[in-house]
Amino acid sequence: MSLSIDVISDVVCPWCFIGKRRLESALRLYRERDPEASAPQIAYHPFELNPDIPREGIPRADYIARKFGARGYSAHDRLVGIGALLGIPFAFERIARQPNTLAAHALIERARRSGVQGAVKEALMKAFFVDGLDLSDSETLVRVAVEAGLERKEAEACIADEELRRTVAEEEEKARRMGVQGVPFFIFNKRIAVSGAQEPEVLLEAMLEAEKEPASSAAG
């Protein structure tokens, strides 16, 4: 039975991008331990850091002022350094608009059903953090998703699908009821949870622990 990994995160969360890279490193360590093991099944789930932001987004400068105050953009310095070590060329200065991410999460959910969820998730994070694209713009969202492998008709229908947005919002609320207050949040085999962008070794340890038989099963 393959390992399942559920990742709860947001596309505009820099620590989620860092966590994604660290998970990828952990997966390489996992394969090195057992090259014959089945590839883990990864599923991405929605979480909006700022669900109160309107659909059209807000100026990034206003968001930074509200979130970091006097620290302003200097709050990103540490992230830039960590990103550089992981191959993420964070370009915060390119970001002009802070989006509401519900539509992006709807695209990611549609991509899951089409088998390209990982690619679309990566593309949206890169679009925001590296290219500085406006993820509140529907055409931008569609273009990014299509370039990542989603069919254009699917992507366009997804953007207009209010029912899908409600489904995504309900899944996010489910995560909050589970106690998820910050992201990234990883769940391995529905048993072991890890909060935060932990180092690859920590994530690998959680993977291996999740693969062990539960004590109750082993005793029986």
Written overview of the protein:
- The structure is a single chain.
- The protein is of the alpha+beta class.
- Helices cover 53% and strands 11% of the residues.
- It has 10 helices and 6 strands.
- It has helices at 14-33, 60-68, 77-86, 102-114, 117-129, 138-147, 152-160, 162-177, 200-211, 215-219, and strands spanning 4-9, 41-46, 58-59, 97-98, 185-188, 192-195.
- Helix 4 (102-114) crosses helix 7.
Main attributes?
220 residues, alpha+beta, four-stranded mixed sheet, two-stranded antiparallel ribbon, 10 helices
Number of helices: 10
Q: How would you classify the quaternary structure?
A: single chain
As a percent range, the share of helical residues equals 40-55%
Structural class from helices and strands? Answer: alpha+beta
- Distance, first to last CA: 20 Å
Shape: globular
* Average of the residue pLDDT scores: 95
Largest sheet: 4 strands, mixed
Q: How much of the sequence is in beta strands?
A: 5-15%
Strand order of the largest sheet: 2-1-5-6
Taken in chain order, the helices and strands follow as EHEEHHEHHHHHEEHH
Low-confidence segments: none
Strand tally: 6
What is the C-alpha radius of gyration, as a whole number of Å?
A: 18 Å
